[in-house]
Specification:
The protein is of the alpha/beta class. It has a single domain, classed as TIM Barrel. The chain is built from 11 helices and 8 strands. It has an 8-stranded parallel β-barrel. Helix 9 links the parallel strand 7 and strand 8. The two termini are 21 Å apart.
């Protein structure tokens, strides 16, 4: 991704990005002046990690919670320990919540019941951690079958999420909600756009922003996505996940560093209200070499060139 792409942005898009930047603090009151964070995994996130993340110039951490695991005491402790680690460095949290088990059925009634149950989980998390939350992100990549448990997005997503929004609007909610961590940004006629049009029109106060993951996109494509979201849903777009693996096909560690630095420079110029990088450490549990090597650090905590590139951009005036 090259900053040169920014030179081709239309004046209207530049005006849009400036407007978005102005309202970032209003959208996310717990977010510091800087708007770029990094993803961590709760099972290995420590206070030491948090201190290094803060020193590097990141302003928040993103981590995920599985709603259907929250009844287990050991898992509750893992979640609370992750929040405590973030708090030790003064880092607020973008909390992404989804279920990992298949939804019990696909009838409208059962989907509504499942949505209400999920909303209760969100409310419980918000009640416990509201002072630390930048936002709660509802789901992660539901437009991919792997992450949408009914595997029938077109027919089951709207009934489920409408029930979530309906349930949440009946209770006091101080934490901004963003959704739905789409693997690709909504576009004209896409399934995510069709779903969002219905949800946003029926529950216009449910979401504060639309979140998506612009892997492989140029600055111009990201700016176009931001404009499409604003124009169609009257909400800002935010980037809850972006990264580049240090594969040899990407130029290895040095290529990863170059692309990370360029990406941060681009989103700063675009004025996107919130952006989260994937991820802080390499993941030994990844299913292949690509998935294992997105980290700014090695899995044992050694800085990679990408960490230095990120810190340089984040701490630049």
């Amino acid at each position: 991704m090259k900053p040169a792409h920014l030179k081709r942005l239309a004046p209207a898009l530049l005006a849009l990005s400036a407007l978005t930047q102005v309202h970032a603090s209003e959208l996310f009151p717990n977010l510091p002046a800087k708007t770029i964070g990094v993803q961590v995994k709760i099972q290995n996130f420590s206070a030491e990690d948090a201190a290094h993340i803060k020193d590097a110039g990141f302003s928040f951490v993103r981590f995920g919670v599985w709603s259907d695991s929250l009844t287990a005491k050991a898992y509750q402790k893992q979640v609370s320990d992750a929040f405590a680690a973030a708090k030790s460095a003064g880092l607020p949290v973008l909390l992404t919540v989804r279920a990992i088990k298949p939804l019990p059925a696909t009838s409208a009634t059962d989907l509504a019941t499942a949505g209400e149950s999920f909303a209760n989980a969100l409310s419980g998390l918000e009640k416990s951690y509201s002072t630390q939350l930048v936002a709660i992100e509802i789901w992660n990549e539901p437009d991919l079958e792997t992450y949408w448990p009914t595997r029938h997005f077109d027919t089951t997503f709207v009934p489920f999420m409408s029930a979530v929004c309906k349930s949440l609007q009946g209770s006091a909610q101080s934490t901004p909600l963003v959704g739905y961590g789409f693997a690709r940004p909504p576009t004209a006629g896409s399934a995510s756009t069709v779903a969002l049009n219905r949800i946003v029109s029926e529950y216009p106060k449910c979401l504060s922003a639309i979140s998506y993951h612009p892997y492989g996109m140029t600055a111009t494509q990201i700016s176009n996505a931001q404009a499409f979201i604003q124009q169609n849903f009257h909400l800002p777009g935010v980037i809850s996940e972006w990264g580049i693996s240090a594969l040899s096909s990407n130029g290895g560690n040095d290529g990863q560093a170059s692309k990370v630095g360029a990406f941060i420079a681009d989103v700063k110029k675009l004025g996107i209200p919130l952006t989260s990088l994937y991820e802080w450490r390499n993941s030994d549990s990844g299913s292949n070499e690509r998935e294992k090597n997105f980290g700014l650090l090695t899995s044992d905590g050694q800085p990679k060139p990408a960490k230095i590139a990120a810190a340089t951009q984040l701490n630049a005036q």
